[in-house]
Amino acid sequence: MLIHLVAAARPNFMKIAPLYHALKKEQWANPVIVHTGQHYDVNMSDAFFRDLALPEPQIHLGVGSGSHAEQTGKVMIAYEKILTESRPDLVVVVGDVNSTMACTVAATKIVYPKNSDKRQGTSDKNPEGFQLSAVSCGLGHRPLVAHLEAGLRSFDRTMPEEINRLVTDALADMLWTPSPDGDENLLKEGVPAERIQRVGNIMIDSLEMLRGSIERERTYRELDLAPGKYAVVTLHRPSNVDHGESLNRLSQLLAGISHKIPIAFPVHPRTRKNLERFGLLPILSNCNGLRLLEPLNYVRFMNLVFHSRLAITDSGGIQEETSYLGIPCLTLRENTERPITITQGTNRLCGVQDLEEKTAAILSSPASKPKKIDLWDGQTAERIVAILRNLNDRKKGLSHAEAQSTQREVRQD
Ligand code: UD1
Q1: Which residue has the least CA distance to atom 13 on ligand 1?
Q2: Helix (H) or strand (E) holding 219
Q3: Cα–Cα distance between 295 and 304 in angstroms, integer?
Q4: What is the pLDDT of residue 130?
Q5: How far is CA 296 from CA 202, 305, 306, in A?
Q6: Residue 60: helix, strand or coil by DSSP?
Q7: Are 289 and 254 in contact (CB under 8 A)?
Q8: Ligand 1 atom at minimum distance from 98 CA
Q9: From CA 33, how far away is CA 100, in angstroms rounded?
Q10: Phi, psi of 89 (to 5 degrees)
Q11: pLDDT at residue 339 is higher than 60
């Protein structure tokens, strides 16, 4: 089974890595990484491939940055060509970035030429060379599409990610959810139950896969930070960083908080560009208690999170990681597509106006404990492999039955 694992941006690499490694061990599977190039800086992309022991992507679309339509369109055009040449049996898309939606649209609309089995560019390990096309599902001659991290909803359509989630989930054939709220959202939208499979949270697989390296790393010490006595900050959402006024307010608040607890702040390229554009960088860089850093690779960043007292963020993944680790998290957003991190984890939504007060409340409370959330257990990739193995076996059985029935028909003629 030729399987494309599509990755585009920083949070995607952690989601494909455990699945790539698990599929690599299977005789019947041929996983191929497709990097769309949405993130391209060394410390936003290559560094993650190194940490996660991923090979160079076999397919690189090199689309780079652009407006939403530009970026989405470039990915669709480039990926359509790849689909025609390499004809995967299955395309796995992850998360909610523009490339997730773009590859889903391209893959669900492609029509492979009939009666032509020649694939270019990649070799298929499957000795029978079958194509697990969607024919058997009555969808036409194209790959199946699976969405990993399906069903999450912020119910806020001003977020580009929410549009990406809605489109991807409406089109994908298999919807792999991390938590019950994902299933419920999809069912309410009319998705047939048989398309939904709750597989768990793949980010926890990456964390557990690299726990040893994360614990051996000494990022916090290199920054002269004491364990349990500093905060980690990350910001990159357009709603927080694209407007001068809100970014200024946030910068002033963080500068104030750094007098109470030291802050380590790895700065996303979008945020750095805007801090420079609005002339706000000095507010942060002139602050003794605040360490502005370049984006960190996965292991170094997670080492910083592991030993932090609290996280202040607008990232989706950090809400999950801190819940799992039992570290308080203030999410600078009005909503979250990951409500389970609030109901069962350590996450709290936080308006900018409440940041100082909520930070002070956390600092005066006892430290929290790691939270146990169902299927956030480091076994998500294995559950997906089991689903795909089953699919592969069923398809093989089907091809065998079809071949026998054709032989019978030929004999009768
Ligand atoms: C994207 C995703 C967001 C995800 C985030 C993780 C969408 C709509 N957004 O946001 O959901 O949470 O990735 O980081 O898909 N840039 C660089 N170097 C890079 C990449 C980007 O300098 O390697 C700069 C460029 O100026 C670019 C800007 O960052 O225009 C934004 O990049 P983009 O991929 O459009 O969105 P993100 O904010 O990274």
Answers
A1: 9
A2: helix 219-222
A3: 12
A4: 45
A5: 20, 11, 14
A6: strand
A7: no
A8: 15
A9: 14
A10: -80, -35
A11: yes
Cα distance between residue 311 and residue 264, in whole Å: 10
Side-by-side strand order, sheet with 196-198: 59-60, 30-35, 2-7, 90-94, 144-148, 174-177, 196-198
Q: ∠286-301-151 over CA atoms, to 5°?
A: 115
Out of 10, 12, 15, 38, mutate this one to test ligand 1's pocket (max ligand atoms within 8 Å of CB): namely 38
> How many angstroms separate the alpha carbon of residue 329 from the centre of ligand 1?
22
CA 153 to each of CA 37, 136, 167: distance values in angstroms, whole numbers, following the listed order: 25, 30, 12
- 232 neighbors 308 (Cβ within 8 angstroms): yes
Ligand 1 contact via 270 beta carbon (within 6 Å)? yes
What does the pLDDT read at residue 150? 98
d(C-alpha 216, C-alpha 151), whole Å: 35
- Determine whether the shortest distance from the Cβ of 191 to ligand 1 is under 6 A: no
Please name which of 122, 144, 130 lies closest in space to residue 28, comparing C-alpha atoms.
Answer: 130
Counting from 1 in the atom list of ligand 1, the atom nearest the Cα of 316 is: 12
User: Cα(17)–Cα(19) distance, rounded to whole angstroms?
Assistant: 5
**What's the CA gap between 7 and 3, in Å, rounded?**
13
Distance 160 CA to ligand 1 centre (A): 12
Instruction: List, in sequence order, every beta strand (DSSP E) within 8-134.
Output: 30-35, 59-60, 90-94
Centre of ligand 1 from the C-alpha of residue 39, in Å: 6
Render pLDDT for 305-332 as a digit per residue (tens, 0 to 9): 999 999 999 999 999 999 999 999 999 9
Which atom of ligand 1 lies at the shortest distance from residue 38's CA? 34
| Each residue's pLDDT tens digit, 361-412 | 999 998 888 879 999 999 999 999 999 999 999 887 776 676 666 566 555 5
For residue 236, indicate whether it is catalytic.
yes
Q: 185-200 burial, b for 16+ CB within 10 Å, e for fewer?
A: bbeeeebeeebbbbbb
Q: Using alpha carbons only, what angle is made at residue 118 by residues 117 and 124, rounded to the nearest 5 degrees?
A: 90
Chain center to CA of 232: 20
pLDDT in tens, 192-214: 999 999 999 999 999 999 999 99
Nearest CA to ligand 1 atom 7: 97
User: Does the pLDDT of residue 136 top 70, yes or no?
Assistant: no
Q: How many residues does the chain have?
A: 413
Q: Exposed, middle or buried, 227 (CB in 10 Å: 0-12/13-18/19+)?
A: exposed
